[in-house]
Predict the 3D structure of the following.
Amino acid sequence: MTRFWIAGQSLVMVVSVGISGGVTANEDQYPIAGVTPYQRPTNAPMITVFKKDKIWYDEALHGVTRPYPSSLRFLEDQGAWSTPFNKPGMPTPYDIRGWHRD
C-alpha cells in the first residue's frame, strides 16, 4: 500500500498484480536466460558456421584505405559475435571513417 499526501489530504493507492499460473507449450522449447549466468543452457541456439564474404569485409573495412594496417588482421579471427568496429559510431567530428557522411 502506498500513501500519497496531496494538500493535506491522504490518498491511498493499492496496486494489485495478477499472476497467471498457466504453463504454455513454449516454456519447454526456449531456455531461460539469467537462471545460471555462468553456464550456457544446453538447448540454447548456436551459430555453427559463420562465413565472411566480400560484403562483410567491405562493411568492416568501411573508411579504411589500402594498404590496410596490420592492426586490422584481427578481422580474420572475428567471429559472429557483436563488435563495435563494423558499426557506425559517433557523428562528426569523431567520425574518422566516414560512416555518417551524406
